[in-house]
Amino acid sequence: MSPRLIFLLTALVFAWLFAFNSGRELAYNLAYLLTGILALSYGWAWNSTRFVQINRYTRARRSQVGQFFEETFEIRNRGRLPKLWLELRDYSTVPFHEVSRVVSSLQGKSSQRWQVRTLCQQRGHFRLGSMSLHSGDPLGLFSVGQNLSLTSDLIVYPATVELNTFQPPIADLAGGDALSRRSPMLTTNVSGIREYASGDSFSRIHWLSTARTGRLMTKEFELDPSADIWIFLDFFHEVEEALDWQPARADQGVFSLTRLRRGGKRIDALELPPSTTEYGVTVAASTARYFLLRNRAVGMMWNDGERRVLQIDRGQRQVRKILESLAVSNATGRMPFDELLLTDGVRLNRNDIVIAISPDPRPGWARALRELRRRGVNSIAVVLDASSFGGRRPFEPLMHELQISAVPTYQVKRGQSIEAALSQTKGWEFRRW
User: Fold this and answer.
1) Which of 230, 412, 414, 416 is nearest to 426 (CA)?
2) pLDDT grade, residue 222 (50/70/90)?
3) For residue 310, how many other CB atoms are within 10 A of its CB?
């Protein structure tokens, strides 16, 4: 109860007591006036949130770190009486998604719209809503509220960077040799042509041969053997390193996107949170996207408290699966990285490629990669330099073990361009086994 309302109620009680005791007309008029003010204010407040419709339009329920998430809001007065002021409060969990707003002077049968653009700076699964609507009377005596409990979800994918090159080059991967096994599906390998048979798809018809022979000719396809790419990401909680970080507020004009110039053209460079987990997730997402865009089959394994396996697949659908999985995974795993490699690596096939991403400075996982290589599984190591994230343990034993194991190695440091770091291997030769 507001102090104004307490004061007015006290004055009303004294006014009626004075009127009854004195019997004067002026006292009764004063009591009637105070009663009328209270009744009118209560009626105004009661009506202020009635006949109000709120619409929330979300362009997409998926976004990505470094991109803007947009929502449009509409508040509509469906009644005939004006609304002096309306306050909309939003309880979304999206960082810095400031939807709350005060709408003033909303006339009857009218509406107001506004748009909210928020720079996504943290990956994860967030809730949109709920909301509440508040208003009151012009004198501020009564305050009323109405809860709007409907919610929806937003998934913010991790950031990815464009990789122009990554070891091994596509040409060095196993694949491209024809098999003598026919495939009922369309592949990149055409083994020959034959006459059209009932039931063949028109997309398989070879029109040049059809025009030359005067008969419908159909293409035959063969399977294309290729090395599968398996990404192993270390989410062991004991090896995570991170520095304090506060996301920049978009309304302050300072974003986590810094402007750079390349070839005379302005571009955006993403500034990641100073955490080995965030850098590892971005490296995993970027390398997966690199190979999937080149029509390679990619799978992923990790342990964030539970064993996770994303089976081998190709195409944009697999890109979305990987991004959605990485959006909600954190360094909460209980299994050291070397155990993960040895436990799940036994299921891999000969000539598969393992991309191991870890901030663990212990050389155990380098020996695990060497063990996989003895089985014919090639390996690439991406070492997240935890010392640049505040870690104190030395990396020399790990780097020495990777060197004597002839494992191509990339080293990523805090603040370093991931695109540049993943284009410069330490120079060890990639070999087929």
Assistant:
1) 412
2) low
3) 19
Contact 352, 227 (CB under 8 A): yes
**pLDDT at residue number 255:** 40
How many CA atoms does the CB half-sphere of 73 hold within 13 Å?
19
Between 2.40.70.10, 3.40.50.2000, 2.60.40.10, 3.40.50.300, what CATH number should domain 52-157 receive?
2.60.40.10
| Res 187: pLDDT | 54
Give the DSSP letter string of 94-129.
STT----EEEEEE-TTEEEEEEEEEE--S-EEEEE-
CB 196 within 8 A of CB 217: yes
Q: What angle do CA 262, 265, 270 make, to 5 degrees?
A: 60
CA-closest candidate to residue 279, choices 233, 333, 238 = 233
d(CA 297, CA 281) in angstroms, rounded, equals 19
In sequence order, what are the beta bridge partners of 267? 260
Q: Can you tell me the distance from the alpha carbon of 141 to that of 42, in angstroms, rounded to the nearest whole number?
A: 8
Instruction: Assess contact for 86 and 52: CB atoms under 8 A.
Output: yes
Distance between CA atoms of 411 and 386, rounded to whole angstroms?
A: 10
**β strands within 143-237, DSSP E:** 143-148, 152-157, 182-183, 189-195, 217-222, 229-233
Check if the beta carbon of residue 135 is closer than 8 Å to that of residue 45: yes
Pairwise CA distance, residues 390 & 155, whole Å: 29
Q: What is the pLDDT of residue 265?
A: 40
The verdict on domain 227-421 having CATH code 3.30.565.10 is: no
Chain position carrying tokens 């009118």: 40
Q: Which range among 68-72, 88-92, 159-163, 222-226 shows the weakest confidence by mean pLDDT?
A: 222-226
**Contact between residue 409 and residue 430 where contact means Cβ atoms under 8 Å apart:** no
SS3 for 302?
strand
pLDDT confidence of residue 229: 94
pLDDT at 5: 87
- Tokens for 398? 């790990």
- Domains in the chain: boundaries: 3-48, 52-157, 179-222, 227-421
Phi, psi of 199 (to 5 degrees): 100, -15
